[in-house]
Task: structure prediction
Amino acid sequence: MFFADYHTHSNFSSDSQTPMEQNIQHAIKLGLKEIAVTDHIDFDYPDLDYPFMFDYADYRKQVDYLKEKYSNQIKIIIGVEIGLQPHVYPLILNLVKSNYYDFIIGSTHCVNKLDLCNDIFFDGKTKHDAYVNYFNDVLGNIKNCPVFNVYGHIDFINRYGNYIDKTMNYEEFAFITDEILKALIEKGKGIEINTSGFRYGLGHTHPQLPLVKRYKQLGGEIITVGSDAHVSSDITRDFETAYKMLKSAGFNFITTFQNQKPSFVKINI
Ligand SMILES: [Zn+2]
Ligand SMILES: [Zn+2]
Result:
């Protein structure tokens, strides 16, 4: 049995139709002790069909209602997944200053104002250049907008792009991923183990074992585990593999958050 899923989406996210209550009920059925609702806020998202915005008051009202209704069965953590882009830092700072969240995932979904799902970002770039461009952007976000608790799916650039071989050779990118991990640790930030890579057919979590091991080696301690579910049935999917991977990287604890303060829970698998 798993303790918590720290990355879930409901119909407060433009790319999910799942009622939040359905996720909560499913999580209870799975025996989870905690679930973090982390719907998307992505200021100035380039694809206008997906505005990735929601009204905080409505969100809060829904979370508070479910917290109360299911208080004997599960702990609900109010979170958010914020899309980080340099030109919207002021909006992000204002968002986190004005609203209460227990837990914040910071993610890169767009680089150079281009959606990574879209091939335009990759056009004319070698795989090496595209991945370095992405990682440089991540590093800038950590240094200049560290409003989050964990960085989301930190190596997921290998999910996109039209390259025949999208695999990431960690040696090749260590010069920049090391800087990223050091910056995270210095600022007391964590990474998440995101299991959606399996659903994208990549056969691994984001990030993969070498990065997780390196985070540990450099002194990192904060790890959340999330499915990135957009439908209830994906909650905790592939967690067993993720937990085993964490243990093989030397982690015996996962992290939970309340009021953005970390607590550590032993992995018992
Ligand atoms: Zn994301
Ligand atoms: Zn997500």
Notes: The CA atoms of residues 136 and 176 lie 7 Å apart. The chain has one domain: 4-266. The chain has eight helices and eleven strands.
